[in-house]
Amino acid sequence: MTRHVLSMVLHNVPGALARVVVLFSSRGVDVESLSLDPTERGDVSRMDVVVGLPAGRSPDQLVKQLSRLVDVKSVVAVADQARNQIGA
Amino acid sequence: MDTVTGASSLVRALEDAGCEVVFGIPGGAILPAYDPLLDSAKIRHVLVRHEQGAGHAASGYAQATGRVGVCVATSGPGATNLVTPLADAYMDSVPVVAITGQVNRSVIGTDAFQEADIRSICLPITKHAFQVTEPEDIPAVIAEAFALAAGGRPGPVLVDIPKDVLSATTTYTPALPVHTPKVTPAANEVRRAATLITSASRPVFYIGGGVVRAGAAAELRTLAERTGIPVVTTLMARGAFPDSHRQHLGMPGMHGTVPAVAALQQSDLLIALGTRFDDRVTGVLDLFAPNAAVIHADIDPAEISKNRKADVAIVGDCKDVLVSLIAAVRQAPVLTSWWAYLDGLRDRFPLGYDWPADGKLAPQHVIERIGTLVGPEAIYTSGVGQHQMWAAQYVGYERPGSFINSGGLGTMGFAVPAAMGAQCGVPDRAVWAIDGDGCFQMTNQELVTCALEGIPIKVAVINNGNLGMVRQWQTLFYQGRYSNTGLSTHKRVPDFVALAEALGCAGLRCEEKSEVDDVILRAMEIRDRPVVIDFVVGEDAQVWPMVAAGTGNDEIMTVRDFKPLFDEDL
Ligand SMILES: Cc1ncc(C[n+]2csc(CCOP(=O)(O)OP(=O)(O)O)c2C)c(N)n1
Ligand SMILES: [Mg+2]
C-alpha cells in the first residue's frame, strides 16, 4: 500500500459525498481518513482524503475518475507520498 | 412563464429537449406525469411489459439514432427494475435518461410504501443522478440530464422526482441551453502521433465503440485509406469500418479473427481510438501487444493509461482526433511486409465452421444467411452468448450503429427490447434481433408491446437447446460436465412458434438447411406483425477462434488445442 492525499472541492448538494465514497469502494481504494469542511462560499465544501492504493498504482487514474463526477469541482493529489508505506 | 403542474412541466421539458418517444410503465408515484403525457402531441409513450425492457429499449433507440433514449418507471420496484439496463448503458456509454417517480418528499426516508433509494442504488452505474426537490427546478434538471447523458463520454443519467413535486403547482420557465465543454485534441500530441504513424512498420488501427458514438466512421475511413494501415473493430465498433473493406481484418479479442488478433500482438504501433483495452480484447494484459507503442485517443481522460500505458495520449472526441490526424499525417508508412504477413494469415485462417455431426443446422450458417439476405442497411441486435459472437462474426456490417449489443455488461435479454427501441427510432429500416433461446426467455414479453404498438421487429431465435456459451466452457474447462445448462427448448418447452403466436406475432420454424433462405424471405415479407423464427440448431457448435480466459492472445486457438500463433513459426 502507498498513501496519497487528495484535496477536493465538492458542490454542496445532496448525494455528492455519497458518489465520491462509492467511487472509492467500487475502485478498490482504501480510505484512511476523510474530512469535509465548509468553505466561506456556502455552495462548495472542501474535502481532504487520505487514501491507500496498492503498490505501483498511481493516484492519477483516481484523480481522473473523481474529476468525472459532476459534483466534484476540483481534485488534486496534493502530496505525492508514494514512498510512504502504510503499515510498513 | 405559465402556471402548470410539475408533471406538465416535466412533459414540456422533455418536449423541449427533443424527446419523441419514451418507454415506460406507470405506477403510483409517477402517475401524475402520465396525465399530461396523454395530451402530448410530440411524445409517444410506448407501454412496455417490464421496466428492464423500457431501459434496453431506450438504449436501442439511442444507439440506432444517436439521440438520447428515455425510459420512465414508478418508484420502488419500477425503479429497481431499471438497474440492469442502466448498468448496461453505463458500461457501453449509451446516452439514456431514466425518469423515476419517488414517494412524497415528506415521507422520504421512512420506508414508505414503494420507497427505494434509487439514487443511491444507481450511484456506481450512472454518470449522474438527480433528485428534484422543487417543482420549479424540473425544466433545468431535465435539460441538464439530457446534456450530461449525451455530452463527453455518453452514459445514463437518472432523474428521480417525488410524487408531490409532480403534483405541485409551479411555473414553466424554459431551461437555458446547457453548455457542454469541449476539449480540442492537443496539437503537440497529434503531431507526435502523426510522426509515430508515418514511421511505424507494423501499425494497426484498434477501433472501439467511441468511434461509433462520435459519428466518426467517414473520418476513420479517410485516414485508414490515406495511410493503408490495417483496421480491427471491437465488438462495440462492428460497422465503424466496412467489413467488405480490404484493410479490415475483423474483430479482435477472445473470439476474434486470427489476423485481427495477430495484428495487435505483432504490432509495433497501436492506434487505439475510442476503446478501453477491455480484458476481452487484451487477454492477459502483460502479454498483450508486447512490442507495440500506443497512441490512445479517448474523450474520457480516465480511460487513457488505465489498463495499458499510452505513449501518446490524446484526449478528445474521436471525430476531432481523426480530423486532426488526417491533417497531420502527410505520408503513408511502408507496409509491404506487414501486409504480406497479415494477408498470409487471412488466407490460412479464415473464419469457418463445421456442420454438426448429428445432421442439425449449423447456427453460423443461419446467421450468415440472415446477414446476406437482410443486408447491411438493416439494424441487428443480439443477446449474450454464442449467438452474439456468431452475430459479430458472420453478419457483414458496413455501417456504424448497425450492430447493437450488450458488450460491457453482457446482459442476457438485451436483444428483443433493444430491437424494439431501435425500430421506434428508425421505422424505415429492418430490425433483426439475433437472440439465444436462453436470452429470449428473459425478455420476450416485449414482443407483446411490439405487436400492440406496431413495431414490426424480426427475432431469429438461435435455438441450440442450451445456455450455449456456458455449455461451451463446460465442454472445454469442466470435462463436459453439463451442470444446469440444458434448457429443454429442443423438446419444445416452450414451443417458440406457439409462444410467438400467443404474444401476437407470427411464429415460424426452421430445422433444415434447405429451408433457411425460404423462412428468412418469408419473415421479410410479413410486415403487419413482429415475426419470431425458431431456428433449431445443433447443440454442440462452438465459437471459434477462442483465446481462453486467463491466457495471452498468442494462445488463440482456431479449433480446440490448435494454436497457430503459438505453435507455428510464422
Ligand atoms: C443476465 C445474465 N445472466 C447470466 C449470464 C451468463 N451467461 C452468459 S451467456 C449465457 C448463455 C446464454 O444462453 P443463450 O441465450 O441460449 O445463448 P447461446 O450461448 O446458447 O447462444 C449465460 C447464462 C449473463 N450473461 N447474463
Ligand atoms: Mg442457447
From TrEMBL, chain A:
<comment type="pathway">
    <text>Amino-acid biosynthesis; L-isoleucine biosynthesis; L-isoleucine from 2-oxobutanoate: step 1/4.</text>
</comment>
<dbReference type="GO" id="GO:0005829">
    <property type="term" value="C:cytosol"/>
</dbReference>
<comment type="subunit">
    <text>Dimer of large and small chains.</text>
</comment>
<dbReference type="Pfam" id="PF22629">
    <property type="entry name" value="ACT_AHAS_ss"/>
</dbReference>
<feature type="domain" description="ACT">
    <location>
        <begin position="5"/>
        <end position="80"/>
    </location>
</feature>
<comment type="function">
    <text>Catalyzes the conversion of 2 pyruvate molecules into acetolactate in the first common step of the biosynthetic pathway of the branched-amino acids such as leucine, isoleucine, and valine.</text>
</comment>
<keyword id="KW-0808">Transferase</keyword>
<dbReference type="InterPro" id="IPR002912">
    <property type="entry name" value="ACT_dom"/>
</dbReference>
<keyword id="KW-0028">Amino-acid biosynthesis</keyword>
<dbReference type="InterPro" id="IPR045865">
    <property type="entry name" value="ACT-like_dom_sf"/>
</dbReference>
<dbReference type="InterPro" id="IPR004789">
    <property type="entry name" value="Acetalactate_synth_ssu"/>
</dbReference>
<protein>
    <recommendedName>
        <fullName>Acetolactate synthase small subunit</fullName>
        <ecNumber>2.2.1.6</ecNumber>
    </recommendedName>
</protein>
<dbReference type="GO" id="GO:0003984">
    <property type="term" value="F:acetolactate synthase activity"/>
</dbReference>
<keyword id="KW-0100">Branched-chain amino acid biosynthesis</keyword>
<dbReference type="GO" id="GO:1990610">
    <property type="term" value="F:acetolactate synthase regulator activity"/>
</dbReference>
<dbReference type="GO" id="GO:0009099">
    <property type="term" value="P:L-valine biosynthetic process"/>
</dbReference>
<comment type="pathway">
    <text>Amino-acid biosynthesis; L-valine biosynthesis; L-valine from pyruvate: step 1/4.</text>
</comment>
<dbReference type="GO" id="GO:0009097">
    <property type="term" value="P:isoleucine biosynthetic process"/>
</dbReference>
<comment type="similarity">
    <text>Belongs to the acetolactate synthase small subunit family.</text>
</comment>
<dbReference type="InterPro" id="IPR054480">
    <property type="entry name" value="AHAS_small-like_ACT"/>
</dbReference>
TrEMBL record, chain B:
<dbReference type="GO" id="GO:0000287">
    <property type="term" value="F:magnesium ion binding"/>
</dbReference>
<dbReference type="InterPro" id="IPR011766">
    <property type="entry name" value="TPP_enzyme_TPP-bd"/>
</dbReference>
<keyword id="KW-0460">Magnesium</keyword>
<keyword id="KW-0808">Transferase</keyword>
<comment type="similarity">
    <text>Belongs to the TPP enzyme family.</text>
</comment>
<keyword id="KW-0285">Flavoprotein</keyword>
<dbReference type="Pfam" id="PF02776">
    <property type="entry name" value="TPP_enzyme_N"/>
</dbReference>
<dbReference type="Pfam" id="PF02775">
    <property type="entry name" value="TPP_enzyme_C"/>
</dbReference>
<keyword id="KW-0786">Thiamine pyrophosphate</keyword>
<protein>
    <recommendedName>
        <fullName>Acetolactate synthase</fullName>
        <ecNumber>2.2.1.6</ecNumber>
    </recommendedName>
</protein>
<keyword id="KW-0479">Metal-binding</keyword>
<dbReference type="GO" id="GO:0050660">
    <property type="term" value="F:flavin adenine dinucleotide binding"/>
</dbReference>
<keyword id="KW-0028">Amino-acid biosynthesis</keyword>
<dbReference type="GO" id="GO:0005948">
    <property type="term" value="C:acetolactate synthase complex"/>
</dbReference>
<keyword id="KW-0100">Branched-chain amino acid biosynthesis</keyword>
<feature type="domain" description="Thiamine pyrophosphate enzyme N-terminal TPP-binding">
    <location>
        <begin position="5"/>
        <end position="118"/>
    </location>
</feature>
<comment type="pathway">
    <text>Amino-acid biosynthesis; L-isoleucine biosynthesis; L-isoleucine from 2-oxobutanoate: step 1/4.</text>
</comment>
<feature type="domain" description="Thiamine pyrophosphate enzyme central">
    <location>
        <begin position="190"/>
        <end position="325"/>
    </location>
</feature>
<dbReference type="Pfam" id="PF00205">
    <property type="entry name" value="TPP_enzyme_M"/>
</dbReference>
<dbReference type="InterPro" id="IPR012001">
    <property type="entry name" value="Thiamin_PyroP_enz_TPP-bd_dom"/>
</dbReference>
<dbReference type="InterPro" id="IPR039368">
    <property type="entry name" value="AHAS_TPP"/>
</dbReference>
<dbReference type="GO" id="GO:0003984">
    <property type="term" value="F:acetolactate synthase activity"/>
</dbReference>
